Amino acid sequence: MAATVSVEPAGPCCWDEPLRIAVRGLAPEQPVTLRASLRDEKGALFRAHARYCADAGGELDLARAPALGGSFAGLEPMGLLWALQPDRPFWRLTKRDVRTPLAVELEVLDGHGPEPGQLLARALLERRFLPPGVRRQPVRAGRVRASLFLPPGSGPFPGVIDIYGVGGGLVEYRASLLAGHGFATMALAFYDFEDLPKEYGDIHLDYFEEALCYMIEHPQVLLMPFI
After folding, report:
1. Cα–Cα distance, 75 to 61 (Å, whole number)
2. What is the model's pLDDT at position 136?
3. What angle do CA 77, 30, 67 make, to 5 degrees?
4. E strands present in the chain
5. How far is 170 from 185, CA to CA, in rounded Å?
6. CA torsion through residues 183, 189, 193, 194, sign
7. Is 4-128 CATH 3.30.70.20?
């Protein structure tokens, strides 16, 4: 019987959604190496790998089987994703366009050798950053430059402002994913974006107050009382 990779949930899913990865059709206690890889929006390659042994029935379930070494060790069901490292030194995995997914390739290779063994099975995962039903609204109000992500439904929803700008620009992926969990989330740019200040040191704090006022006045944002 040929080896196969099983991923649950099957089909496209969100980047922050846990996966259950299993391999079936292996020989009893067969040593294998699992390898994950993806290319970011600029084509940079990220990879991770781990060594495993199948159980007596020829099955490997990453929720039950500890990794024996590689990019990580121990029981880490999602290790092949969180351990992804760039081939290019000091490169960060970021997602600028949340409307498009990233494709993660999973490969099952025979053995634990330093050189890749025979390819036994592979699967391609589509990991999305815009959850189903989440609405993305560009915000250009006064000086505020942002994107507002609203969960499915009419709301109102608890509001969150995500201020994250390593390197400047508008970073949306954390806000878009958080909206999938029921929060109206604003991804707020604060420098080096459109007509905002180019340098970090030129930021005025009342800019953030203006963003807060926008959220308070938005009809689909729920005001939470302080206790």
Report:
1. 10
2. 97
3. 25
4. 4-8, 13-14, 20-24, 31-39, 45-53, 60-61, 85-86, 102-110, 119-128, 135-141, 144-150, 157-163, 184-188, 221-222
5. 13
6. positive
7. no
Among 122, 105, 117, which Cα is nearest to 33's?
Answer: 117
Burial of 169 (0-12, 13-18, 19+ CB in 10 A): middle
pLDDT score recorded for residue 202? 79
Token pair 């030129």: residue: 202
Mean pLDDT within 162-174: 87
Nearest to 43 by CA among 108, 106, 91, 98: 91
Separation in Å, CA 92 to CA 1, 3, 40, 82, 137: 40, 33, 9, 13, 26
pLDDT digits (tens, 9 = 90+) for 74-95: 999 999 999 999 999 989 898 9
Pick the CATH number of 135-221 from 1.10.3720.10, 3.40.1360.10, 3.40.50.2300, 3.40.50.1820: 3.40.50.1820
pLDDT grade for 203, boundaries at 50, 70 and 90:
confident
CA-CA distance, 151 to 14, in Å (whole number)?
14
Place of tokens 């059709």: 25
Ordered strands of the 157-163 beta sheet? 135-141, 144-150, 184-188, 157-163, 221-222
CA–CA separation, 210 vs 191, rounded Å? 15
Phi, psi of 73 (to 5 degrees): -140, 155
